[in-house]
Amino acid sequence: MIAFGDRLKSVVDAHGRLCLGIDPHTSLLELWGLSNDAEGARALALRALDAAHGRVGIVKPQAAFFERFGAAGYAALEEVIRTARDGGFLVIADVKRGDIGSTAAAYGEAWLAPGSPLEADAMTAVAYQGLGSLDPVIELALQHGKGVFVLTATSNPEGREVQQSVSGSGRSVAGQLARDVAVRNASARGWGSIGVVIGATEPITASGIDPVLLQHTPVLGPGFGYQGSRLSALDSVYGVASSSVIPTVTRSVLSAGPEGLAAALDAHRAELDA
Amino acid sequence: MIAFGDRLKSVVDAHGRLCLGIDPHTSLLELWGLSNDAEGARALALRALDAAHGRVGIVKPQAAFFERFGAAGYAALEEVIRTARDGGFLVIADVKRGDIGSTAAAYGEAWLAPGSPLEADAMTAVAYQGLGSLDPVIELALQHGKGVFVLTATSNPEGREVQQSVSGSGRSVAGQLARDVAVRNASARGWGSIGVVIGATEPITASGIDPVLLQHTPVLGPGFGYQGSRLSALDSVYGVASSSVIPTVTRSVLSAGPEGLAAALDAHRAELDA
Questions:
Q1: pTM score
Q2: Per-residue pLDDT tens for B94-150?
Q3: Contact with chain B for residue A31, Cβ under 8 A
Q4: N or C terminus: fewer CB in 10 A for chain A?
Q5: For chain B, what percentages of helix, strand and coil (3-state, to nearest 5) are there?
Q6: For A4-273, which CATH class?
Q7: What residue segments make up the domains of chain B, in order of their start?
Q8: What is the ipTM of this complex?
Q9: Between vectors from CA B108 to CA B102 and to CA B114, what angle results, nearest 5°?
Q10: Packing angle, helices B38-52 and B257-273, rounded to 10
């Protein structure tokens, strides 16, 4: 079994580190001329995978936009994840799940257990109940070569009231969480399998996160291209951690419509290479 | 349209305030002699609803235990929620979803929008990205007479590292969140429609939560009977907020097996009345 961190590194070496977010929300389905239902979400996602082939190696479907269609939406999501994995993509399920004990374990089973209908390669998770509450998810992930990205710092201003609070160590909540995740990757030679999600429009040090800690920790960076972050600003935002960042583009690509997807992805790749 | 807080109060007045959690996890399905699949989860949940009729007015299915079966699990969950609501139960979907912007809105659509396949009466939500990040969910809830219970303090020890961190106001993260939710219920005459989740095995003041603030704020209290909290200890744990608490029993009831459910519920009701 190959650890997720190593799988992620291989995919990045082969295809670059850009990640395509797949968020079939109402306004995009409308823009694409698709129905606002599970079939529309499925069609948008599969078309996005087509355009992504050979351009990116990592995709990140957002569960919320499928969940709103209930079981039918999840049937579409199952197909999207399966198609992506069969096509060689590494799939990060953006689900931001979190709970304790057997409930946390059940979320891990849902998204990471081999053979689960929704089996992805990694999932995002929330640690409002402490990083330790995610242990059942993390253990399951490590056991099966999967990854977990823990939501750490987000770029929305309301996030500060929790993330910038001061923990017992004197660090910010975000800074402490980043450090605790990094500790779990300490024995990895390259990237560990537990990542963080840090969406930043300003230097991450402003969130109390020490980028030096993150050199073995993959950093999922959402919202590039649309939410105000530029791919060309990676170094200034993430500092020495910038080489660990998987930047994600979503709306700036999907809003180019089915015919413009490939060109939008190519433009982002060029911006990242520059 | 009747506000969720008022609907909740009516149900409590008619049936008492005990809530039955519905968590079809692997070991319970085994105990019940059911298959560990969507059909087993469905059978356990529907049987639990049968036993709950006339005994409790509120049920709380846990999405994780259905999500692990993918679309088939969600089809079962759709049926469980619909059956419960058709049977007059008030349904709180325990999903602990949270995100920002249009993604948060999509989670609200999924669980609270009238006509959604998974439409419940209320959902639980996580505010790691700040209470303001849940505004799209809260607005949708208020518009449709639905409720949102924001995860505030949890009884697992690892939760303290985030929930007991000190926010800019000098309050704990949990205390500040409880206060911010209470502010949103300030204009309610009885209960407001935005609740908090406070799982406590010790007085909630130890989490920095002022119970006086919560007199118009419904408090969902999970884990009674099994996780170490006794229904008879409501007053000592929640103080003056104890009259706002919806205590939830789950495993202590479900582990009584299909034949013992009703008696276990009756015993909890008696304990609560004592």
A1: 0.98
A2: 999 999 999 999 999 999 999 999 999 999 999 999 999 999 999 999 999 999 999
A3: no
A4: C
A5: 50, 15, 30
A6: alpha beta
A7: 4-273
A8: 0.97
A9: 125
A10: 40
